[in-house]
Amino acid sequence: MHTGEQYHHVMLASRRDRAVRDRFQKMALDLLPAGADVLDLGAGTGIDAKAYAARGHRTFVHEPSQAMRDYLAHHCRDEIAGKTIVPITSPLACKVQAVTANFAVLNHFADHAALFEVLSRVVGRGGFVLASMLNPFYLGDARHRWWRANILNLVRRGRYAIDSESRIHRFAPRVVAQSATPYFRLERLTPRGFGRATQLYMFLLFRRV
Questions:
Q1: Might you give the EC number(s) for this enzyme (predicted)?
Q2: What is the sign, positive or negative, of the torsion defined by CA atoms of 144, 179, 96, 127?
Q3: pLDDT digit string (tens) for 145-170?
Q4: pLDDT of amino acid 166
Q5: What end-to-end distance do the CA atoms of the chain give, in Å?
Q6: Are 105 and 41 in contact (CB under 8 A)?
Q7: Looking at domain 4-136+172-208, which of 1.10.10.10, 3.30.70.360, 3.40.50.150, 3.30.2270.10 is its CATH number?
Q8: CA-to-CA distance for 19 and 24, rounded, in angstroms?
Q9: pLDDT score for 129
């Protein structure tokens, strides 16, 4: 996938990804107070942002990829014109009740402590950060050599990085929760139980303290 448009259509065409997105959006919208502002961190092409704006939430969008930003500007052009979606160049450019980070945005960060410190200046007390992250316990990845090679790293350190161009990191939830302290506490984690082995993504809800 080389362009934002290609990524956009691939995501919408994937039944599995649509199901994950639907669950994530429902969780976010159920948590958001009426009319609350939200920051979509790593907004991609604006699929989630458009859904939040349609429900009356002014949505700030931060996306580092130029290709994604270009297609977001097309996909959300009416909302941007109406200022219900507001592109920003830094998370610190807004103050919101909630931050959402869907589809493994946090897996691109090696240092979550620094990220949560920044987000503590963005989210008001009582607000939340909702993130979907790659599930390091997902058995569907056991067919890959990199997964098997890092089992001990996951058990011992709770984290590892895959040696690839994108340097995607995998984290156990406890490691992310520790990084969020003292600004946020982990309030909810899904899935639990057997779902840990069968679902590619886990959802983590952090509450601002």
A1: 2.1.1.222, 2.1.1.64
A2: positive
A3: 999 999 999 999 999 998 766 679 99
A4: 64
A5: 39
A6: yes
A7: 3.40.50.150
A8: 9
A9: 98
